Amino acid sequence: MRQWTLEEKYKRIEDPEALRPLHEAQRSSPYRFSYHVQPVCGLLNDPNGFFRDARGWHLFYQWCPWGAVHGLKHWYRVFSADLVHWRNEGLCLAPDREYDNRGVYSGSALVKDGETFLYYAGNHRDEHWVRTPYTCLARLMPNGTAVKLDEPLFGANSMYTDHQRDPKVEYNAEKGLYYLFLGAQNLQHKGRIIVYASERPDGGWRYLGELGVPGYEDFGEMWECPSIEHISGVDALIFCPQRIRLPGRGDAENHCGYILGSMNYDTLTFEPSGVFTPLDFGFDFYAAACAANADEAVMIAWMGLPGARYPSDAEDWQGALTLPRRLSVRGNHLLQQPVVGLTALRGAETNDRSGELPRASELELECGGGDMALRLFCRRDGTGGVLLQYDASSGVLTADRSAMTLRVQPEQGEMRAVSLCGGLRALRVYVDASAIEVFVNEGEAVGTLRVFPTDSERFYALLGDATPRLWRLDAAVENCFIL
Ligand code: FRU
Questions:
Q1: Model-level pTM?
Q2: Is residue 359 located within the same domain as residue 332?
C-alpha cells in the first residue's frame, strides 16, 4: 500500500493539467464503470449537494484528486437530465479559504425562491493540526459557479468534540423556519445530531439543541451525514453511525441506515416507530443522500466505506456512486427501487442460464420461491465468483464474495445475509465492471458489492428455481477529463 506524506495528501491543485496524466492512466482500467458515477481521477467518497431543478439533477461528490487517499477534499460536479446519463461538469468547490483550508467536506443543497444554496463542512486545521469544524455556505449562481460567503455561517459548538459536520438544511413552512442538522459527537464520545434554525437561509443561525432519538442514546461514537426525509407521510431519519458492530455485519464498524418514525419540531425529538435498519445488506454502501427539491424521494450513496481498501487503490483511484434509487414506504419498511429510466440502457437480451457476463449488464430473475444460486463473475467452468444464494427453508438470501481471486476487505466478513419474510419472488441485478447491486422483490432489500474480477472471472451461472433475462447495458457515464 502506498504511503502518503501530509504534503502529498493535502496538495492543492495549482494547475488542473497536472491531473490529466492521472486520469489518462486510470481511464482504461478494467474496473472503470460504464453507467455509475466515478471519480475523474483519485478518490470519490460521499455524494453531496444533490438537488433537482427545471434542467435536471445536479450532484457533487467528495473528491481527493491525487490518488486513493482521504486527503484534501473538494466538491466535483456532475449533471444528469434523467438520473441515468451523467456528465462531468468539473470542480465546483475547492478548499481556498482559511475556514476550509484542509477540506470542503460533505453537505447538502437547498433550493428556495429560485436560489440554490450549498451548505458544507469547512474542515479547518491550524499549524498544530488541531481541527475546528465550520458550517459554511456557497451560493450556486445561474452560470454554474459557486460563490462562498466571506465568513462561515457558524463555528464549532463547544458542547461537542471536533466531529461536527455534514450540514443538511430543510425549510419548514409550518414554522416559517430553516432547520440545519449536523452530525456530531458529544464529549462522552457518543454519536448525536445537533440542530440549528434561522429565519433565512444565508445567516442568523442559532443553536436549538440536540435531536432526541429515544432508544439511540448509545449507538456509535459519531453520526455522519444525517438527514430527515419526509416520504409518503412518514419521516425517515437517515444517518451513518460509526464504531459500532451490528448483527450480521461482520467486523464492519461503519454503517448507513434509517429509522422510520415521526419528527416533532416542537420538542426536537425524532420518535422512532421502527428500529435502525441498514439501508443496504451488502458491503460497500455509505453516506446516502436524498435529492432536495424533488417531488419524489431519490437517494444515492457512496459505493465504499470509510477506511476501506480496494484493488483499484494500486491504480491510484477509488470509489463510485450507487445507482440512484427511488424510496417509498411500505408498512414499517423503506422500499428502494432502481430509477425507472434505467431500462432505457437495455440492449441485446438473452435468456440463457449461463454464459459470458457482459461487463455492463442487468439480470432480471423471476423466482419461484424455491432454492436458487446465481454465480456472477465466475470462471468458465462455473466455479468461483460472487455467489447469491437463496435458501427457501430459512427464507434467507446471502451474498458471498469470498471465492473471488481478488479479495476485498476479507477481515470485515465476506458474506452478508438478508431475511425475506415473504420469500423470494424477483431479483434485479445490475452489474458494472467492478460492482454489483442486487434489488430484491419490489425493493424490499438491496445489496451493493464491489468486486474486482480477473480476466478469467467473466461468466455467470444460474441454478435452481428462477427464470433469467439478461440484457447488455449501454454506457451512460462519461469517463473523460473535465476540470
Ligand atoms: C463521510 C465523511 C463525512 C465528511 C466527509 C469527508 O464519509 O467522513 O462525515 O464530511 O466524509 O470526506
A1: 0.98
A2: no
